[in-house]
Amino acid sequence: MLQFRSMAAELEARRGKTLVLGIGNVIRGDDGVGIHVARRVAELLPAELAPRVDVDEACTGGFDLVDYLRGYERAIIADAIKTEGGEPGTVYKFAADALKPTAHLGHSHGVNLASALAVLSALELGAPREVTVVAVEAEWLYEFKEELSPRVAAAVEEAAAAVLEALKNPPA
Amino acid sequence: MELPPNGERLRRMIYNSYFFYDHLLHFYYLAAPDFVVGPTADPAARNILGVIAKVGLETGKKVIEMRAKAIDVLKYFGGKRTHPIIGLPGGISRALDAETRDEMRKHAEEAVEFSKFTFQIFEDVVLKNKEYVDLVLSDIYGGQQTYYIGLVNKDNKVDFYGGMTRIVDPDGNEFAKYEGRDYLDHIAERVEPWTYLKVTYLKNVGWTGWVTGKDSGIYRGGPLGRLNASEGMQTPVAQAEFEKMYETLGGKPVHATLAYHWARIIEGAQGAELWLKYMQDDDILDEHIRNIPTETPSRGVGTIEAARGHLIHDYDTDENGIVTEMNLIVATTHNYAGINIAVRNAAKGVIKGGDVDEGKLNMVEMAFRAYDPCMACATHSLPGKMPIEFEIYDADRKLRRTIKRNC
């Protein structure tokens, strides 16, 4: 059974480790692809990497990301992405500093990944030194479906492989 | 079915810790940029990073720490910090041991102290600035005389978890008080062609359009709505600030939209105090936390106060317990009419002669932000921007200008 472990103790346990975090909502079609990728990474994670890698899921994009990320040496985020004219199923890999913080927060669920990282850095609260995003171009983003669209489903393996490849290298 | 006493006690303890951290976050990270940095300040600085620059790293860190300590409670009982699984039919997920209780109690004590500190910040930043107090009471954000809704306990004090639904009229007089399961006798919903959200109103007053006042069935919930619908707070620190708010803002009820921020931190203090109160009760260690359901229900209505407002879930089920019909009226739905009118009034008050700039647009957004609405938190794909479009009309309803952001 889960024991009570305060955030302070949790931070200590994260020291020097990499977080693979799948973000999304699995009942919103391709929005959940990040979760599917994280689950696949957990299945394929080599035993020798397991002690220094945590795989987690966040069905939220808001301020909770601060708590998920803080204290880790490195984070690899798996998420859905929608780019102008992007081909569904395309896998992208880029550094998180390519994203812009939310400029205007209308509500507390409006904090995005870049905003969460900016807050952690500004407060000197243990922002990961390196944050990589592995994103899959989504197709069914605004529909209630538990499954992924065919092209996005086919990309899960490639995205998981991209995460595992990144894990082979120690944090920069 | 009835919950065992400690099933309900634990639920209340956890729920109050949630109210504390959720309100705390909104105040420091969403409301404070408008007041600490300034409503018309450069948008590049008018955010949490700008607040940290002004109030200091330590306060910013403390907010994150206090939030984490409250979330620790949810995680312990619910297994995870987001979407925890805590409430089970007939009780709660797990009991509390003495060692864990002792640790959590320290967190609750800190939360009460931090609530007092937050009142001091509010005093220093907002109340000691006459310009801000005038802004709160100005026609731009005030004058929206509506009915108010919230749960109250047997003494008509604000309750987040249980009790009866109380509605007061724009003068603050009790208009209705009922058990949540009877909501259909009081709340009606209507569909508008321009929005996915339904608009709720008081059935026994009626819908008279996008107007406020005693003859309009529009009502508001959420922090200010709950305080207006009550006769006070359950705990001493929150009650003292409750009295101060109404005295400062001209008596009860307060209609000013920006007063939602003050009401929110008052509720946060009650959350912290009740969290602590339950942690000080040795009965919270009772291991009888759940009565196992033995019957299949055919209908269930749950009413609770979510951080953003009144929340109703209504389910019909078949002989296998499978849902056959459901109706959810969530917090932002109850406030939707009020939000729209608040934004309209702010736009009318701020934008004159077609003169629009970033600062004025933010002052319109402030009317929206005060409600902490949750319009679209179901999808979280990158890049995570909030699309917003402003259309500026002249007095003849001619579209003069459109400003798009993140569209």
Give a written overview of the molecule.
The complex is a heterodimer of chains A (172) and B (407). By secondary structure, chain A is of the alpha/beta class. The longest helix of chain A has 19 residues, at 150-168. Chain A is globular, with a radius of gyration of 16 Å. In chain A, helix 2 (33-44) packs across helix 5 (150-168). Chain A has helices at residues 7-14, 33-44, 64-69, 113-122, 150-168, and strands at 18-23, 53-58, 74-81, 91-95, 130-137. Chain B has helices at residues 5-37, 48-55, 57-78, 98-127, 130-137, 222-228, 236-248, 259-279, 331-350, 358-369; strands spanning 87-88, 91-92, 147-152, 164-168, 174-178, 187-190, 199-202, 219-220, 299-306, 309-317, 323-329, 388-393, 399-405. In chain B, helix 1 runs antiparallel to helix 8, helix 4 (98-127) runs antiparallel to helix 8 (259-279) and helix 7 runs antiparallel to helix 8. Chain B starts with a helix and ends with a strand. Chain B is α+β, with helices and mostly antiparallel strands. Chains A and B meet through helix 3, strand 3 and helix 4 of A and helix 1, helix 2, helix 3, helix 4 and helix 10 of B.
Features:
heterodimer; A: 172 residues; alpha/beta; five-stranded mixed sheet; 5 helices; globular; B: 407 residues; alpha+beta; four-stranded mixed sheet; three-stranded antiparallel sheet; 10 helices
